[in-house]
Amino acid sequence: MAAARLCSLPRWALCRRVLRPVSLQRGYRGDSPTDSGKDVLEIPLPPWQERPDEPLETKRARLLYESRKRGMLENCILLSLFAKENLNRMSEQQLNLYDRLINEPSNDWDIYYWATEAKPTPSKFENDVMAMLREFAKNKKREQRLRQPDLEYLFEPPR
Q1: Which of 21, 56, 85, 133 is the most exposed place for a label (fewest CB within 10 A)?
Q2: Helix/strand/coil for 34
Q3: 128-137 vs 73-86: helix axis angle to the nearest 10?
Q4: CB 90: neighbour CB atoms within 10 A?
Q5: In the 8-state DSSP scheme, what is residue 55?
Q6: How many CB atoms within 10 Å of residue 100?
Q7: Which residues of the chain have pLDDT under 70?
């Protein structure tokens, strides 16, 4: 009787009945409270260095690239749009300040929090470029900023 009942069940029901009592423990390495963290490898970033001999156009191109490739979407959008609007108008001193701002901090979230005024900006980054970025982040024109700008604007004549 039991065999006839089993044969009349659909295949998925058989598998479900067989697998139901099995409990699979899911986890990941390091999920125990006694984890020492010794298996975590933290790679230190090289210290930021100013590039005094870099040609101005090369610096602008590098900063544009570094503004677009941040590693977190929020900064990719914010900094790439800021760079599009401001890099061509910045003086060499402002470009150096911007270079330091986006490359010296090891945590991109810090830059984002400073720009959006969620956290106070450290005094060494408090300058006119940071003020420009904070003002830009306020988006007073209410522009839709959902993605990075296309690169076609690089080939348009400056306004």
Answers
A1: 21
A2: coil
A3: 110
A4: 20
A5: -
A6: 17
A7: 1-38, 42, 145-148, 150-159
> Are the beta carbons of 48 and 39 closer than 8 angstroms?
no
pLDDT at 154: 59
Q: Do the Cβ atoms of 70 and 76 come closer than 8 Å? A: yes
pLDDT value for 26: 43
User: Which residues, including other chains, have CB under 8 Å from residue 108's CB and lie 6 or more apart?
Assistant: 70, 71, 72, 75
State pTM to two decimals: 0.66
pLDDT at 120 (0 to 100)? 94
Q: How many CB atoms lie within 10 A of CB 61?
A: 13
- For residue 89, the 8-state DSSP code is G
Residue 77 contacts residue 145 (beta carbons within 8 Å): yes
Phi, psi (deg, nearest 5) at residue 124: -70, -15
C-alpha 81: how far from chain center: 14
Tokens coding 39:
């298996």
The confidence score (pLDDT) of residue 141 equals 74
Structure tokens at 14: 């058989």
